[in-house]
What we know:
Elements: H1 7-19, H2 22-34, H3 39-61, H4 68-76, H5 78-110, H6 117-132, H7 136-164, H8 179-184, H9 211-237, H10 239-244, H11 248-253, H12 264-294, H13 300-320, H14 324-360
Helix pairs in contact: 1-7, 1-9, 1-12, 2-9, 3-9, 3-14, 4-5, 5-6, 5-12, 5-13, 5-14, 6-12, 6-13, 7-9, 7-12, 12-13
Amino acid sequence: MSNSISNRQMVLLIFLSMTTYNVVTIANSMARAAGRGGWLPLLAAAFIFAVIAVIITKLGGMFEGQMLFDYSKQIVGAFFAYVIALYFILYFMIVFVYLHVQIIDLLKVNFLPRTPKWATALSGIIVFGFIANKGIRNVARLFEIIAPIFIVVSVCIYCLALFQGREFNLLPLFESSRMWEYADALKKSVVPFLGLELLLVIPFTPQNKKVPKLMFFTVLLVGLYYILVLLSNIKILGVNAVMYYQAPLVEALKLVQIPILERVDILYQTIGFCGLFLGTIIVYTAIVELFCKMFAKSNRAIVVAVTGAVLYALVLVSNLIKHPIPKLVFVIAVLGLLSSALIPAILYVIAKVKNYAQKTL
């Protein structure tokens, strides 16, 4: 099972995939939706997606050594297995475009202002494709190296921000009169918790028996991580400023003071870029894995090259669209709920019913 990964790698992969870019903008979206009480819908969403994580991992655990395309053929037949695989490929391609456009924009604003977007996009595709060609197992090893650094450094910075901000910026943390707003803000929490669907392209082994429990607590930790980001941003900038800035995290970090470091935001952006790159790479890898399963006799390098060409074309097209990010976010939110919740839940129920029927015969 060359694509199998350890429990630790799986936890780090999912944590980093869910947080690397969402963490930059989540304070803005949640403050706009629920003000200082944005932590409440985040906590609720964390529990909902933690349950979804258990369903996905239970489904994978029922078919050891197989991934989505393999076991969906056993559950719903070959035709629907191809339909589901093509759906996930389309979804992952949209997610890749969303992430890569963010990378291009961030690099242009912060590091490469004179480099044309088409050149940055092409360079990224080549690098991502080269790494994706190595397979999920090698990508997971990269996560094992970079994810702990990202988590430790970012949490330390957020805690410093939380201690340095102004107390009155956070109060009141909860207002009973805004319960409807808190409930409505749940829809803004969907995209930040997407990423669990990547588990569907990872074959589980006997060593992954504890993954359902680990994934449940991992998603809860992601929720607490987001809450820490939201509260630290509000405490530093104030809720109105957080609503104003599209990337309030970067603005907040400019005000955080560390005696031995003058620009905390530069440190964070450097580490954050590494995480964002890995998040984009794993999506590229998921597309390649699905294609390779659908076309078992195909050459992996050719699949990677063709996939890269298609993704590059999609990125170029997206750059021609005015304000593509809000449109992509909406599409990803809808398709992501189907990918991470509805489809795995349906497959899981059908698989359990079939197993029960076989045992009673």
